[in-house]
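ok trying again, last paste got cut off:
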Amino acid sequence: MNKKLQDYIKYIEKESEKPSKELQEYHKTMVQQFQHERLIHLIVTLFFALFMILFFIFFGALEIWLPRGGWGEVIIAGIGIIDGILLVVTLFYVRHYFHLENGVQKLEEITKRLYGRE
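nice, full thing came through this time. structure:
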């Protein structure tokens, strides 16, 4: 998605030098699609962060309540591994969302130029 966004930004920056009604409509559609993508990734990122926090709390609670040895340690280790995986995935989603957000903001600047409002 980042490559698609960057390719579109390069394209529209070049084409915005000679704006037309068709280009404005196409650009409006593409901005809407990227904004929709940004919203979906924001929701997914927030859910992953929420689950990561919940598993961290669950991990801490199990550390306190479960007895040491046997299945207790296996369960605690499993929850810790799941929480670690969620942490890594959340970090990648935050990074991806950061690039989407910055790209869409750049498109909004180009939109002003394309409509002659800059």
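cool. The mean pLDDT is 90. The longest helix spans residues 21-65.
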